[in-house]
Amino acid sequence: MSTTFSAGDVRWLEPEEERAWRAFRRVMVAVRHGTARDLAAIGLSEPDYEVLSTLSERPGRTSTLGEQADKMGWSRSRLSRHASRMESRGLLRRDPDPADGRGCLLVLTPEGLRVLEEAAPAHVESVRRHFIDRLEPDDLAALERIAARLGEHPRE
Fold it and tell me: CA separation (Å) from 50 to 86, 111, 142, 152?
């Protein structure tokens, strides 16, 4: 990469590294845009679907606010505001967390489960159309390996 910035201790990206980084970003944007657009067409946002699907898989269809926020990479306050909007739509309810007096439990409501069950087939079709069906089995295996490596703790 040619730049007028002082290099100092910065390890600038080599051309092939920059191409890979930009390709990765383009893929993320394209897939997320497509699936988000498809979810919006059925009245849900990506975060709505993430919360509903996570709660549906949890024992008692319940999660702490903190666990869900960590899973989504959100702050607790951001998720709390989003949960309030979902609660007003009847998709979930918040109960006190007996283990944390300041926290709350997110609980999937019957309405939330119904909405998820109606949305899931369309969402899976969207994931197939924008991601799975465009790749070969070897590509999917490579992505799993990459995701596992990137999910590890960063090297210091």
Answer: 12, 16, 24, 22
